[in-house]
């Protein structure tokens, strides 16, 4: 590195140094005295740009330092330092007997730069998730939850406890810290009746992250996957982006329609507790039929229990994982996003012991595990019973919101009827009598109520005209006001 020298300036101040077409340079050079950059750095930048653009072609000889300094009205040291910096980074060459020259091939290609990256790069597609929340209005958004019922005191104590614990220099266990895995196993046993040991649990960053781990860790390239139609579009896209073949299978009030004629596949992805988005629950005969299908075709099942903690009008059916009873076919996905807050980005999966090493390997290569402070705070909340108490509070809160919503929308029959109301944090409003869901959604948006339509969740065209109303992030008052506007638009 060449140390810059201080160049004396002409007596006048506050104006550019000379800008002339100098001897040997086919372009003017302007240097600003008093600028943020030293004069030698300014000169180096101008010359570098000229070389890269081809204004100084390869093989061109630059003026001597004394000549260029005199022309620009700076000291020789300014030019010498600029030349030295450019020689050091390869922009110029200093050759004995020839002076300072531009190396051949230093100019950029004259071809237009690629505006979209490499030609083989796929065109950008936005992620298949809901748009950002509008700044105002009532938003019936799925996948979110209200956090006002959180115990703030316990929440702060949990993070204080995590902060007091020493932070090791390593990454920790990619499967999750043993204490959190044990706490999650106990939690899912209490909440969903699923008996699982800590060694069968892998901590994830939510259900979608868990599916990424499963897809990468277990499925051979190009695997066939049975998928609910309509279904969780982001999960479907994970499988498609990984190169798997997604086979849409219709659902009805009893869940995925599975039977002896169902096609073979490596995996089936289902949401049996509260089908997303239609809201039905898979009947016990269908659950048993799905397990039999997996046994017959040597397949796995992903059971995404994304909001299984919230049931209102009917007792929960046993999970597929508990019905499997040692069959080694079911991976159960749970999440704390709907229980506590989506921003925690924490969930878990349980899997048969034989699958755990492959899943941990995939988790290691994907991101090397979950943040330790988050794990420790959640362990404190789970072990102290705070999460269980929060679930009970949240269940009462959401039940009240759901009751207000259904009460306000019930008078819409026969113009529209509700479905999927027994559980979860969203309902479907099925439109009848020639009503178009997209048209209704647009009219609602004009009045400050934002909803999504069922066609967003399908691969094939749908004939059903349905609005999907997520109420997890609403208060009772917001749900009532939004429902009344829906009612006014549908039945004026």
TrEMBL record:
- Gene3D superfamilies according to UniProt: Type I PLP-dependent aspartate aminotransferase-like (Major domain) (3.40.640.10), Winged helix-like DNA-binding domain superfamily/Winged helix DNA-binding domain (1.10.10.10)
Q: What are the UniProt keywords, alphabetically?
A: Aminotransferase, DNA-binding, Pyridoxal phosphate, Transcription, Transcription regulation, Transferase
One annotated GO molecular function is: transaminase activity
| Classification via SMART domains | HTH_GNTR
Q: Which domain of life is it from?
A: Bacteria
* Residue ranges that the Swiss-Prot or TrEMBL entry lists as coiled coil: none
Q: Record's Pfam families?
A: Aminotran_1_2, GntR
The UniProt record lists the HTH gntR-type domain at 37-105
Segments for region (Disordered) = 1-26
Family of the protein in this entry: In the C-terminal section; belongs to the class-I pyridoxal-phosphate-dependent aminotransferase family.
Q: What is this protein called?
A: PLP-dependent aminotransferase family protein
User: Species name for this entry?
Assistant: Deinococcus rufus
Question: Lineage from the top down?
Answer: Bacteria, Thermotogati, Deinococcota, Deinococci, Deinococcales
């Amino acid at each position: 590195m060449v140390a810059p020298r201080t160049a004396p300036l002409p007596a006048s101040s506050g104006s550019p140094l000379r800008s002339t077409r100098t001897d040997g340079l086919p372009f003017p050079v302007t240097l600003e005295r008093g600028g943020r950059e030293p004069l030698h750095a300014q000169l180096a930048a101008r010359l570098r740009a000229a070389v890269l653009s081809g204004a100084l072609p390869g093989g061109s000889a630059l003026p001597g330092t004394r000549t260029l300094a005199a022309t620009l009205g700076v000291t020789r040291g300014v030019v010498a330092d600029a030349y030295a910096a450019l020689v050091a980074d390869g922009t110029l060459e200093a050759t004995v007997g020839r002076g300072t020259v531009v190396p051949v091939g230093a100019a950029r290609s004259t071809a237009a730069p690629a505006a979209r990256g490499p030609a083989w790069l796929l065109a950008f597609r936005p992620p298949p998730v809901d748009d950002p929340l509008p700044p105002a209005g009532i938003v019936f958004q799925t996948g979110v939850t209200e956090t006002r019922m959180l115990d703030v005191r316990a929440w702060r104590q949990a993070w204080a406890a995590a902060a007091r614990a020493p932070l090791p220099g390593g990454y920790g266990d990619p499967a999750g810290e043993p204490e959190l895995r044990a706490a999650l196993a106990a939690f899912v046993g209490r909440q969903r009746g699923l008996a699982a040991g800590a060694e069968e649990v892998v901590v994830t960053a939510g259900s979608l992250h868990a599916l990424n781990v499963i897809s990468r860790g277990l499925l051979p390239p190009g695997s066939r996957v049975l998928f609910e139609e309509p279904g969780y579009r982001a999960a479907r896209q994970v499988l498609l982006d990984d190169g798997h073949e997604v086979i849409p299978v219709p659902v009805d009030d009893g869940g995925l329609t599975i039977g002896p004629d169902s096609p073979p596949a490596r995996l089936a992805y289902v949401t049996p507790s509260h089908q997303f988005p239609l809201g039905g629950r898979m009947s016990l005969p269908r659950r048993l039929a799905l397990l039999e299908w997996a046994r017959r075709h040597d397949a796995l099942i992903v059971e995404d229990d994304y909001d299984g903690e919230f049931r209102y009008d009917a007792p929960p059916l046993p999970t597929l994982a508990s019905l499997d009873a040692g069959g080694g076919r079911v991976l159960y996905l749970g999440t704390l996003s709907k229980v506590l807050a989506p921003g925690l980005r924490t969930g878990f999966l349980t899997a048969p012991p034989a699958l755990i090493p492959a899943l941990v390997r995939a988790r290691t290569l994907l991101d090397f595990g979950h943040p330790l402070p988050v794990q420790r705070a959640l362990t404190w909340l789970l072990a102290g019973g705070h999460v269980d108490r929060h679930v009970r509070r949240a269940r009462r809160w959401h039940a009240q919101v759901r009751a207000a919503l259904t009460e306000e929308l019930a008078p819409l029959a026969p113009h529209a009827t509700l479905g999927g109301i027994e559980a979860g944090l969203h309902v479907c409003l099925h439109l009848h009598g020639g009503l178009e869901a997209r048209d209704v959604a647009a009219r609602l948006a004009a009045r400050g109520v934002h909803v999504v339509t069922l066609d967003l969740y399908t691969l094939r065209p749908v004939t059903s005209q349905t609005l999907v109303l997520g109420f997890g992030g609403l208060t009772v008052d917001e749900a009532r006001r939004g429902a009344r506007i829906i009612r006014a638009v549908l039945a004026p």
